Automatic annotation (TrEMBL):
<feature type="domain" description="Galectin">
    <location>
        <begin position="2"/>
        <end position="132"/>
    </location>
</feature>
<dbReference type="InterPro" id="IPR013320">
    <property type="entry name" value="ConA-like_dom_sf"/>
</dbReference>
<dbReference type="InterPro" id="IPR001079">
    <property type="entry name" value="Galectin_CRD"/>
</dbReference>
<dbReference type="GO" id="GO:0043236">
    <property type="term" value="F:laminin binding"/>
</dbReference>
<dbReference type="GO" id="GO:0030395">
    <property type="term" value="F:lactose binding"/>
</dbReference>
<dbReference type="GO" id="GO:0005615">
    <property type="term" value="C:extracellular space"/>
</dbReference>
<protein>
    <recommendedName>
        <fullName>Galectin</fullName>
    </recommendedName>
</protein>
<dbReference type="InterPro" id="IPR044156">
    <property type="entry name" value="Galectin-like"/>
</dbReference>
<keyword id="KW-0430">Lectin</keyword>
<dbReference type="Pfam" id="PF00337">
    <property type="entry name" value="Gal-bind_lectin"/>
</dbReference>
Amino acid sequence: QGPVCTKLGLKPGQRLTVKGKIAPNAKSFVMNLGKDATLLGLHFNPRFDAHGDVNTIVCNSKKVEEWGAEHRETVFPFQKGGTAEITFSVNQNDVTVHLPGHQFTFPNRLNLSVFDYFDTQGDFTVQSLSWE
């Protein structure tokens, strides 16, 4: 478990940038963005080799104990032992995920007007967090 941020206050038009290092023997890591730990607007989960997925990014949303439908991205710009910079841009109806050389959007299924919560888990060490 990495740092947990609360009271971020990210609104449409704002973004959060996470920079960090991926473990040399990484299997997967997670970044969660939402209202709190039980209401996750975006569960971002790059998997090197986990849960039957290889080099796949799995995204989802979670409302209390209920997960939504998984969304899979096959573009995988991460390297074990490398560094990563990921930016989450909050829009009215979705979140745009900016990766090195690729971006995609994930719908704001919970209709959150503010993203207050962020955490990281797994084989990733946060080096810096910035938001604007």
